[in-house]
Structures are given as C-alpha cells and as structure tokens.
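Appendix B. Chain record.
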Amino acid sequence: MPRPVDSASSLARFVEDVRVLVPVAGRDNRIEQLPDGRTNLHVRVLEGGRADVTLAGPRTRAVFKDPTDLVRVVSLQFKPGCAAPLFGVSASVLTDSYVALEDLWGRAGADLCRELLAARSVSDVLDQLSRAFAGHTDRSDAPASASLARRAVRLLEGGEARVEQVATRLGVTARHLRRVFTESVGIGPKEFARAVRLQRAVRLAATSSDWANIAVCAGYYDQAHLIAEFRALVGLTPGAFLSQRAGTRAKGDGIKRPSWPGEHAMPG
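Structure tokens predicted for this chain:
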C-alpha cells in the first residue's frame, strides 16, 4: 500500500508560493508578471474544454496579460534554483519561455497532466504534485551547482549587489558563479540582482511616494537609475506603472481569488 505523502512538507522544499487564479466576470482580469528570477508551474483550465500544464521560466522583461479564455489556474512558484534540477533541464532553456510538462517528463509528464487536470480541489493538485516530486528527488539532490546558486540567491536577496563579492564569499570565481547561476536559475546573477531591486522598489512604493528615498533603499544609485531600470525591465516609468496598477485595482482586480469552485479557501 503506498505511503501517504505530506504535500505541504514535500512541496515546501521546492515551492515558495501557491496561488489559485479565477477570473471574475465583469472585472479587470489583467495579470502582471514582473521579473523576479522565479520559475512557475501553471495548471490551466481553459474555455472549450482545453487545458494544459506548463513550466514558465524566469522573465527578463515584464509581461502584462488580459486572458479572455481562462477558467482557472493553479500556479506553483518555485524557489530560485530548485526547478531546474527537479525537472531535469537547464533553467536557461526555460528563460522567457513556456514548456509543456510532458515535453520534459515524457509519458510520466503526460500522465501527471491528466491527473492534475482531473483534480477536483487545490488539495488534490498539491497531493498529485507532491507524489510526482517525491519520485524525482534524486534529480533535485544531484547537482552541487544548484546548491551554490541557491546560496548566491540568498546573498543577493539579502542585499549584496556585486557579483564579484558574492563569488568571493562563496569561494568561486565570478565566471564560475555566472555559469552555474544561469544554469540553475535561468538568468545571470547580475540580472537576478536587477530583478531583486525592482521587486524591492515596487514593495516600497506601496507605502511611499518619495522616489529618491525608495531608490536608495531599494539599492539603486539614485532616482535616475531607478527610472532607467523600470523603463528597461517594465517598459514604463515607475509612476506610469503604479498608475496602471492603481487603475486596474480601482476597476476591481478579479483574477486573484484564493478559492476553487466548491472550496472556501486555499489550504495553507
């Protein structure tokens, strides 16, 4: 008899966030994807009986979508450096791309897709994924490069901005760090640091309009540097981005509901 799998503890090793998105009729359903150095697995149910399970690699530029045929999607956000060894592919192959799960895992992936799409609750989806990941832990344990990349991620997210200093602290060359980081995370450490600063700035801007102070606290040289990075990564100035986001919320952001038809809340 198969041993039960604790989905929460099993997934926590690889996953840092789980979201359920369900569009609400008559509301603004825009989805924004800002660069953050993360890979996501999307289990999507679409109108017309269509569905898919895809792995979305880290983005180097922001993407804004207004889906018109989405019924619901369960999204798992992986910790940086965890998805690549788990799925048996270099993360650089996934960058700015969407790859079908069955293209990575073959028949096992196709079978898992059918099980996920037939799931009747978020708990069922997480249980199925926990069992699948448990069968691939040998892959996730294998590469020492993934461990090195994850240590670098912690330093970069902790405030260290210079790749050379991160490499020195980890006892490797900057060239070696860039190679293993790109293989494991999908983007280079410099690009990851840019995404970290961007995410910090967006969080700080939620409670402050002092852009000069936001720039310094987020790790930019000055406000001009912050504006230039926003234009490069988001395609908008900080002010235009926040105005666009505020306009979406004022209309009623209907895409993010932590529930599933028949459930009251997503299990923690």
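Further analysis of this model is presented in Appendix C.
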